Amino acid sequence: MTPTTYRTADVDGFKVFYREAGTKGAPKLLLLHGFPSAGHMFRDLIPLLADKFQIVAPDLPGFGQSDMPPRETFRYTFDNVARVIERFTEVIGFDRFAVYVFDYGAPTGFRLALRHPERITAIISQNGNAYEDGLSDGWTPIKTYWQDPSPANRDALRALLTPEATRWQYTHGVPDTTTVSPDGQNLDNFYLARPGSDDVQLDLFGDYKSNVALYPSFQDYFRTHKPPLLAVWGKNDPFFIPPGAEAFKRDNPNAVVQFFDTGHFALETHAREIADSIRAFLT
């Protein structure tokens, strides 16, 4: 088995922590995590793919072991997150790669594709949305904050940062919750409890509207470039619902869509099945 190594890249003074596995020279695969997680969410997937791919899974800025600079010196927007990850790929020599996007990883990875379509060899979207069709009613409190970014509406979103909310994200829609390890959610809650992390996450909740505004641009990219695209979706996701997966086929008729009977964090229960789908799709 190819071991996973744990490294840090200096991205123009910004520390990006990342996991790496596989063989240099093999096809490259970039794994981009979501909220409120980090690269550790891929801990089960990486060993299942490392024999065929060179894999890198960074922690996004403000997440995991990557730098979380003060909000006064770094604006927590998805544009800025994507710029750091774009430079990260250049620093580590990821010139052409397939990208696996989940949750926040989707608007990050899709921005990379817009800026450098020649670098993207394929897209695997695991509950990584690019269509308003895919937004559930669970977004209503965040949309309220977009429309009126008042202190009261911002404070109302703190309920999404509690340990109970993290556990709900991991277990909602999972037929047997005993199959969900507590390890990932407990580590997420550790990171969320760091001083200043709450306001970083609230800033990103507010800026998520910029992703919705870019949906038409993402869709135009799918239509124009038609990248090989695999959507592997937890069909019981409370935030990104199945129509968001099916919508990829509107703009890219060759997109492949597979649903799994699980929730938002599909890798917690279906890592092997998703790995098998990726191997078949990319090879």
TrEMBL record:
GO molecular function: epoxide hydrolase activity
Pfam families: Abhydrolase_1
Highest taxon of the lineage: Bacteria
InterPro entries per record: AB_hydrolase_1 (IPR000073), AB_hydrolase_fold (IPR029058), Epox_hydrolase-like (IPR000639), Haloalkane_dehalogenase (IPR051340)
Keyword list, A-Z: Hydrolase
Gene3D superfamilies cross-referenced by the UniProt entry: alpha/beta hydrolase
Extent of the signal sequence: none
Domain AB hydrolase-1: 29-270
Protein name per the record: Alpha/beta hydrolase
